[in-house]
Amino acid sequence: MPTYTTMPYHLETERLILRPWAESDAADFSELLAERGGKNYSVERARKAIAGLLVGTEHSGIALLPIQRREEGDFIGYCGLIIGRSTLEEPEIAYELFRRAHNQGYATEAARAVLGSAAATGRRRLWSTVRTWNEPSLRVLEKLDFVRDHISTDEDGEIVWLTRELP
Q1: Which stretches of the chain score pLDDT less than 70?
Q2: What's the CA gap between 150 and 120, in Å, rounded?
Q3: pLDDT of res. 3
Q4: Residue 79 near residue 65, CB atoms below 8 Å
Q5: Phi and psi of 121, rounded to 5°?
Q6: Closest C-alpha among 77, 81, 79, 103 to residue 92
Q7: Whole-angstrom Cα distance, residue 126 to residue 155?
Q8: Which of 14, 34, 124, 132 has minimal CB crowding within 10 Å?
Q9: Using CA atoms in the order 134, 79, 54, 88, what is the torsion angle rounded to 10 degrees?
Q10: What is the pLDDT of residue 41?
Q11: pLDDT by residue (tens digit) across 120-151?
Q12: pLDDT of residue 1
């Protein structure tokens, strides 16, 4: 089994900074998760989720990172690598942004930086799983040269599995 280097936990792009989680992100994270609808994500629940993400990062060497805009300094979402429905050897790229940050290229910019850091770990392939109704996410992945592999179904509907070879 190949060994992988730890993913960089601080990434910068022209407009964005991706960095490790801080407890001070809990209120923003809670608000982002609540924006999905359905469930109420308390700040305390978000704080526990952040603690879990930090522990997971320590054990796996991959991370989901908060995104903040460089100039404004505000939290607009997260992007990074997770095991998700895949494996540590071929993790999934995941991202979620506040609706107010949609359609400005931030998800593509952040995900491109994460792709580079994934390649730097020595990994050869990434996955992404997206609900068929989530056209904006599918467009981001298309821009990043992910290709559709297959579709599966669970209790919430259809999931598109996409993959991307890394250099």
Answers
A1: 1, 38
A2: 27
A3: 84
A4: yes
A5: -80, -10
A6: 81
A7: 24
A8: 14
A9: 80
A10: 84
A11: 999 999 999 999 999 999 999 999 999 999 99
A12: 61
- Backbone CA torsion sign across 115, 121, 127, 128: negative
State CA 159 to chain mean position distance.
17
pLDDT of residue 82: 97
Q: Which residue from 115, 118, 120, 167 is spatially nearest to 143, judged by alpha carbons?
A: 115
Round to whole Å and give the CA distance between 84 and 100.
Answer: 26
Q: Would you say the pTM of this structure is higher than 0.90?
A: yes
Beta bridge partners of 77: 67, 97
Tell me, what's the pLDDT at 40? 76
Q: Residue 13 in contact with residue 112, Cβ under 8 Å?
A: yes
HEC sequence for the chain:
CCCCCCCCCCEECCCEEECCCCHHHHHHHHHHHHHCCCCCCCHHHHHHHHHHHHHHHHHHCCCEEEEEECCCCCEEEEEEEECCCCCCCCCEEEEEECHHHCCCCHHHHHHHHHHHHHHHCCCCEEEEEEECCCHHHHHHHHHCCCEEEEEEEECCEEEEEEEEECC
Tokens 């799983």 sit on residue: 129
Q: Which tokens is 58 given?
A: 């320590």
